[in-house]
Amino acid sequence: MTLRIKHIFSTLILACIFFAYASSATAQSQSLSVTPPLFQLSVSPGNVWQSSVKVVNSNPYPITVYAEVVNFVATGETGQGRFLPIEGDVSDKKTLAEWIEIVKIPHTIAAEQSKDISFLIDVPDNAPPGGHYAAILISTQPTAGQGPASVQTVQSVTSLFFLRIEGDIEEVGTVREFRALDAFVGVPDVTLSLRFENKGNVHLQPKGDIIITNMWGTERGRIPVNYRSNFGNVLPQSIRDFTFSWRTDFKVTDIGRYKALATLAYGVDGIKSVDAVAYFWVIPVKATLITLLVLGIFITLITLMVRAYIRRVLSLAGVDMSQKERLPIPSDSGETMRTTYQKAAAPIKHGVLDLRARLRDIPTQKTRTAVVIDFVIQYRIFFLSVIALTTIIASLWWYVQSATDDDQTYEVRVIEDGMSAPVMTE
To answer: Would strands 63-74 and 107-109 be described as parallel, antiparallel, or unpaired?
Structure first.
């Protein structure tokens, strides 16, 4: 009796495991896709247009899908929209969803196969000109009135319709706002927000570039807007916020004010354009303080060198800086006295003559070396000034070359719904 109870108990456990596994397999997500995801059409009133959407079943088992036509309207500024089912009496035929005819019966698609679902767009003669928007929803669960509901994982995909009715078309777009979310950053990593407003009656797709330059006018980044894309449309009487991030490796020469220039074209022929400018600053505190300190040292050294050189010129010219009077000085030959001011190059010339006089009649190379060393020590301020000036010039040359070098890598990403994706910048 005990063995029989154990056998029944074991059977129940195995059955529970089996049903739990079966439920998990039934509830697993299904892979479903539709192509094309977007139809962009231009149709005249009174015309009929026919086509189909291909539904692809990538699952290793057959699935049944249902098709429904709904209207599509923009919501918010992130490019999202919402679907509005056809309600009430549809005899007036005012919306695109009412013009699309599709078979709503269940469609069974074999495992790892696809099926074309045909539809027809019958545009009425009195269709208003401008843009009209709808979608075909393909779902694994029927909507109300299409069949019994069942407990399953619902998977749905959409194919959007952007229909343009010829007639009195208004293509009017403008940049409502263009700015950097942070006007001051510590590293070259900035998020840019571009809000494009469509004031017309048809959808617009602004295309162009955002060029980022540093304070020297050198290009530091180029962001393509809607490059090689069928999406990125702005529906009539709505605003869409295009958000991008730009970053590059930090260098000391990146400190300063940056300019982002957005130039966009829109319209069927792309002949209309708008532009906008945004500014931001890259100011790392530590690097900026070090740069200011180095700059202050350079300015101080230059000032001291100029003053020392002027004093030397006046001294050679016979001016006693303490008594404010001229003193006689020997000429280059030592035979005559001159009372006029020396030329600006007099200190250098005087030093060269002094070195020549010291090296005259020196018998050995070792003695000559010692004389040169003594000469450098005596004129150490001059030589240190030359070294400092050379360093300053070399540093300025390096800074300008680095700041104006446009061969610098950068990264651009487009941000949508909190998610970011890299953008090709070639």
So the answer is: antiparallel
**CATH level 2 (architecture), domain 173-283+407-422:** Sandwich (2.60)
The residue among 298, 321, 327, 295 whose CA lies nearest residue 308 is 321
Q: DSSP secondary structure string, 56-103?
A: EE-SSS-EEEEEEEEEEEE-SSSS-EEEEE--S--TT--SHHHHEEE-
Asked whether the domain spanning 173-283+407-422 has the same topology as the one spanning 30-165, the reply is yes
- The C-alpha angle with vertex 269 and arms to 265 and 274, in degrees rounded to 5, equals 20
For residue 322, the SS3 value is: coil
pLDDT value at residue 421: 72
What pLDDT, on a 0 to 100 scale, did the predictor assign at position 337?
Answer: 39
- Which token pair is 254? 């990146």
**309-314-317-321 Cα dihedral, nearest 10 degrees:** -140
Residues of the chain below pLDDT 70: 1-29, 88-91, 143-154, 270, 311-347, 350, 355, 361, 363-366, 417-420, 424-426
CB 210 within 8 A of CB 262: yes
CATH 3.30.70.1130 fits 30-165, yes or no: no
Rounded to whole angstroms, how far apart are CA atoms 259 and 192?
11
pLDDT score at 8: 41
CA 167 – CA 44 distance, rounded (Å): 8
- Closest among 161, 147, 138, 21 to 68, alpha carbons compared: 138
Residue 5: what pLDDT?
45
- Close Cβ partners of 315 (under 8 Å, ≥ 6 residues apart): 321
Say if residue 36 is preceded by a cis peptide, omega within 30 of 0. yes
Q: How is the chain split into domains, by residue range?
A: 30-165, 173-283+407-422, 288-403
Q: Considering only CA atoms, which of 10, 72, 38 is closest in space to residue 159?
A: 38
Segment (H or E) for 212: strand 207-213
